[in-house]
Write a structure and sequence with these properties.
3-stranded antiparallel β-sheet, alpha/beta, signal, SBP, Bact_solute-bd_prot1, single chain, 19 helices, D-Maltodextrin-Binding Protein, domain 2, about 450 residues, Sugar ABC transporter substrate-binding protein, about 45% helix, 5-stranded mixed β-sheet, globular
């Protein structure tokens, strides 16, 4: 049974790879330089990582003599490729971008090298400067550190200050979800083509499920109780889901089932939504120099119902593969890419709005950053520091995680549930029918994990 369980967990992380993916992976292996003064880094292709590439040769390589060969892929693709390489301990990549979802799972499977030895020697890295929730979320069950953050984020509510003023609306300092629903109704249609709010409806455990789960948490619901008993049809989960879907159907964006983070960001930037609940990382784009809504956005904490706070916690972080043959060189790269020095370099080279923030307390003390991020910086920092991944709701959980359950199977479960709920948003089935199917999916995991909660 234990062997079967471990196999299931591994399969859930790396996915069921097709022959083409495996062949492509093997074909690429021979093209990567190994050993010597070169390390291989596999990472997600978001804008801040692209900027990292541009700075590496001129600054990191020049200073250390270590060359870095990057492979960048879209998020879904990079997760699959990292899972394949790390699960097999192939050593094709020395460093990879993983999140606080994968870090504890990979650590438990012994795919990552713990970084505590390096941290003990490199006092100037200042591990205590890493914001506590981010720092804790990247540890394994053994308490050791298995990844260092590139940036961190939580979630909050963004709203058009000018639209609210014109409509005579006031955003509470600490809004509740019922208050937000009322504001969305009143702001709906404030300008031609403007919805009251934008909420993710795009299927995906990292899309629709992320904001929805924070709503579930604060309404008193949970995916699993502390003994892994599935709770998707319980009152808290049901009430929160019906609330979310009702809100997006009545006052949300058009085409909600095709709207994820990127689409809602575009809606907010183009004046198509009066409010948006999503990742704190979206604020940088809204306040960018060429943004048409720069200076027009207000920022409020993630709405609550039964909890003191409800923002999620997420980080793209650097993990060091245990089988790497260049561990010391790889650590030097991780140290540089997560350092105070790197943040200041980005601020100087690309502007302070581009700094990969949300991970270090010292970032929020930099005058240039405080000036640039004045509208959202402190709200972001507070959202991250108040996040509690071990106790995000009103009842005990079997494992850590705010907008996810930190077990390998969740990526597949969350995606399948999101498809059912997205169909409910589209009106193809009722919420009750969607949750009944989702409960059955979750119960399959309950059978595997029963009695293994923390």
């Amino acid at each position: 049974m234990r062997t079967r369980s471990r196999l299931m967990r591994t399969r859930a992380v790396i996915g069921v790879a097709t022959a083409n993916v495996l062949l492509a992976s093997c074909a690429g292996a021979g093209s990567l330089a190994t050993g010597g003064d070169t390390i291989n880094v596999l990472m997600v292709n978001n804008p801040q990582m692209v900027e990292l590439q541009k700075l590496t040769a001129k600054h990191f390589t020049k200073k250390t003599g270590i060359k870095v060969q990057f492979t960048t892929l879209p998020e879904n693709d990079v997760r699959d490729k990292i899972g394949q390489d790390f699960a097999n301990q192939a050593g094709q990549y020395d460093v990879a971008t993983i999140s606080n979802y994968e870090a504890p799972i990979y650590a438990k499977n012994e795919w990552l090298k713990p970084l505590d030895g390096y941290l003990k020697k490199d006092k100037d890295f200042d591990q205590k400067d890493i914001l506590p929730p981010i720092r804790e979320s990247l540890k394994g069950e053994d308490g050791k550190t298995y990844a260092e953050p590139f940036y961190g984020e939580s979630s909050f509510l963004m709203y058009r200050k000018d639209v609210f003023k014109k409509k005579g609306l006031k955003m509470p300092a600490k809004p509740t979800w019922p208050q937000v629903a009322k504001l969305a109704a009143e702001a709906d249609g404030a300008q031609k083509g403007m919805s009251g709010i934008c909420l993710r409806g795009l299927p995906g455990w990292g899309e629709l499920i992320a904001p929805l789960t924070t709503v579930v948490n604060t309404h008193g619901g949970t995916w699993f109780d502390e003994n892994y008993k599935a709770k998707l049809t319980d009152p808290g989960f049901t009430k929160a889901t019906k609330f979310y879907i009702d809100l997006v159907r009545k006052h949300g964006e058009s085409g909600a089932t095709q709207s994820g983070f990127a689409e809602c960001l575009n809606n907010m930037t183009q004046g198509k939504s009066a409010m948006w609940y999503d990742a704190t990382s979206g604020a940088g784009s809204l306040e960018a120099a060429k943004s048409p809504v720069k200076g027009k956005i207000g920022y409020a904490p993630a709405p609550t119902v039964k909890t003191k706070s409800s923002g999620w916690l997420y980080s793209w972080a650097w993990g060091l593969q245990k089988s790497s043959r260049n561990q010391d060189k790889a650590w030097k790269f991780i140290k540089w890419a997560s350092s105070k020095e790197y943040e200041r370099l980005v601020g100087k080279e690309f502007g302070w709005a581009n700094v990969p923030a949300g991970k270090r307390a010292s970032t929020y003390e930099i005058p240039e950053y405080r000036k640039t991020a004045g509208a959202f910086g402190e709200t972001t920092r507070k959202a991250i520091t108040e996040a509690d991944p071990r106790n995000p709701g009103v009842q005990r959980r079997p494992t850590i995680g705010i907008q996810f359950v930190d077990i390998p199977e969740f990526s597949d479960l969350g995606t399948k549930v999101s498809q059912e709920l997205s169909a409910a948003i589209a009106g193809r089935q009722s919420v009750d029918a969607a949750l009944k199917k989702s409960q059955q999916l979750a119960e399959e995991i309950s059978e595997e994990y029963e009695g293994r909660g923390r």
